[in-house]
Specification:
By secondary structure, the protein is an alpha/beta fold. It contains eleven helices and eight strands. Bound molecules: 1,3-dihydroxyacetonephosphate.
C-alpha cells in the first residue's frame, strides 16, 4: 500500500517569520493519516527541521548537487540537506530545468546522489503547453522518465511528480481524465522498467495549481497518491484543507 503524500514546495519564498506557518501546520495535524512534507528555501531548512522535530511533518530541499563535497560555489549536497534535517528533496522541477538548464542527465545524477544519501527523492516531469497542444505529452513524459530516473531505485524512496508546466502557478488544471492518463502511463512505465514490486510502490504526485477547491477531485483520480503544492502550501490555512482532502481520499 502506498502512503499518500502531501508535499509543499515553497520555491524562493519565505524568511524567518514564515516558520510560524509550519508551527500552525503541525498544530493542525498532530496525527495525520498521510505523509506531510514541506520544502522551504535552503536557508530555512535547519530552523524548520528543529521546529518540526517532534512532529510528523517532514522537511525537504528543493535541489541538490550531484557531488558530496567540492569546489561548487553556491551549491548544496544531498548530505548537507540531510545534515540540516531534511529527509527529502525535489529534483528536476521545471523551474530548475528552465532557469538552470537542467537536463534529464543532470537530474539523474542528482537523483543518484540523493538516493544514496537516503533522501526521499521527488523527480518532477511535465510537458509544456506547446508539447501538449502538439499531442506530444506522453512522449515527453516517457523521455523525462527514462532520462531522469537512475537505474537503482527503491519504491519507497522514489516519488514522481507530474507537473504540467502550463498548470504551474496559472490556475489552470488538466481535467481529471488527462491527469489519469498521464499517471496511468507513468505507473506502467515504472512497472515495465523496475518490475511490478518497485513500480507499484513509487508514489505519484500531481502538481500544478492544486488548491483546497480542486484537491478532492484530483485525489479521486486513480494513481494520484498526493500532490506537490506550490502557492497554496505557503500558508497553513491554505495547505491544511489540501492535507485533509488527501486524508479523506
Ligand atoms: P503551484 O501550486 O503554485 O501551481 O506550483 C506547483 C509547483 O510547481 C509545485 O512544485
Amino acid at each position: 500500500m502506498r502512503r499518500k503524500l502531501a508535499a509543499g514546495n515553497w520555491k524562493m519564498n519565505g524568511t524567518g517569520p514564515a516558520l510560524a506557518q509550519l508551527e500552525a501546520l503541525a498544530k493542525a495535524h498532530p496525527d495525520p493519516s498521510v505523509d506531510i512534507l514541506v520544502c522551504p528555501p535552503a536557508t530555512l531548512i535547519d530552523r524548520a527541521a528543529r521546529i518540526l522535530r517532534d512532529t510528523p511533518i517532514a522537511i525537504g530541499g528543493q535541489d541538490c548537487h550531484a557531488e558530496t563535497t567540492g569546489a561548487h560555489t553556491g551549491d548544496i549536497s544531498a548530505e548537507m540537506l540531510r545534515d540540516a534535517g531534511a529527509t527529502a528533496v525535489i529534483l528536476g522541477h521545471s523551474e530548475r530545468r528552465a532557469d538552470h538548464g537542467e537536463t534529464n542527465e543532470t537530474v539523474r545524477i542528482k537523483a543518484r546522489a540523493a538516493l544514496q544519501a537516503g533522501l526521499v527523492t521527488i523527480i518532477c516531469v511535465g510537458e509544456s503547453l506547446s508539447e501538449r497542444e502538439a499531442a506530444n505529452t506522453l512522449d515527453i513524459i516517457a523521455g523525462q522518465l527514462s532520462g531522469s530516473i537512475p537505474d537503482l531505485v527503491t519504491g519507497e524512496q522514489l516519488v514522481i511528480a507530474y507537473e504540467p508546466i502550463w498548470a504551474i502557478g496559472t490556475g489552470k488544471v488538466p481535467d481529471t481524465n488527462e491527469i489519469g492518463e498521464v499517471h496511468g502511463f507513468i505507473r506502467t512505465r515504472l512497472e515495465r522498467r523496475f518490475g511490478t514490486g518497485v513500480g507499484r510502490s513509487v508514489r505519484l504526485l500531481y502538481g500544478g495549481s492544486v488548491k483546497a477547491s480542486n484537491a478532492a477531485e484530483i485525489f479521486a483520480v486513480p494513481d494520484v497518491d498526493g500532490a506537490l503544492v506550490g502557492g497554496a502550501s505557503l500558508k497553513a490555512d491554505d495547505f491544511s484543507p489540501i492535507v485533509e482532502a488527501l486524508e479523506s481520499a
